Amino acid sequence: MRAAALALMLLAGCAMLRPEADEALLVSDIVAATVGAARATAEEQRRLLGHAQKMYGALQDDASRVRLAALYATLPPPLRDDARAATLFE
């Protein structure tokens, strides 16, 4: 009985850590996508920004908001928009 209680507590602890792991993977994905976009051709950058804008328009969650803001802050002009990036990051 004691082992079952201990196992249950360990599982509960792991479950509590899981959202942080998901968030870390999400941040890693956003950073990698932003770095990839910064290295892409101008045409590909426009396509990626358009896709991020569409995704944010469809689902205004934190992940799509940060993804779009990161692109606005990172891409070169004329795609760069520091004012929009700052607004989205707030």
First-residue to last-residue Cα separation = 49 Å
Residue runs with pLDDT of under 50 for 5 or more positions = 4-17
For the residues shown, what is the average pLDDT?
A: 83
Tell me the strand percentage band.
under 5%
Structural class: mainly alpha
Order of helices and strands: HHHH
Walk me through the topology:
Layout: H1 2-39, H2 42-58, H3 62-74, H4 82-89
Helix pairs in contact: 1-3, 2-3, 3-4
Describe the fold and architecture:
Helix content is 84%, strand content 0%. It is built from 4 helices and no strands. The protein has helices at residues 2-39, 42-58, 62-74, 82-89.
List keywords for this structure.
90 residues; mainly alpha; 0% strand
Task: Write a compact overview of the structure shown.
By secondary structure, the protein is an all-alpha fold.
